[in-house]
Amino acid sequence: MLTEENKNKVEELRKRYPTSQALLLPVLWMIQEQEGSLSEESMKYAGSLLNIPYSHILGVVTFYTMLHRKSSARYRIDVCTNVSCMLRGSGKILEHIEKRLGIKPGEVTSDKKWTLEETECLGSCGTAPMLAIGDEYYENLTLEKVDKLLESLQ
Amino acid sequence: MNLQPAQPEKLNAWERVILPDVPGLQKIDFYLANGGYKALKKALELKPEEVIEEVKKSNLRGRGGACFPTGLKWSFMPKKSDKPKYLCVNGDESEPGTFKDRQIFEFNPHLLIEGTLIACYAMGMTAAYIYIRGEYGKWIRMLQKALDDACANGFVGDKILGTDFSTHITIHRGAGAYICGEESSLMNSIEGQRGYPRVKPPFPAQNGLWGCPTTINNVETISNIPVIIKNGWKWYSQVGAVKHPGPLLVGVSGHVNNPGVFEMPTGEPLLEIIHKWAGGVPGNKGIKAVIPGGSSTMMLRGDQLEGIRMDVDSLKAAGSSVGTAGIIVMDSDTDLIQVITRITEFYYRESCGQCTPCREGTVWMYKILKRFEQYQAVAEDIDLLMDIANNIEGNTICALGDAAAWPVQSMIRRFRDEFEKRVHESQHRVVA
Ligand SMILES: Cc1cc2nc3c(=O)[nH]c(=O)nc-3n(C[C@H](O)[C@H](O)[C@H](O)COP(=O)(O)O)c2cc1C
Ligand code: SF4
Ligand code: FES
Question: So what's the ipTM on this one?
Answer without folding.
Answer: 0.98
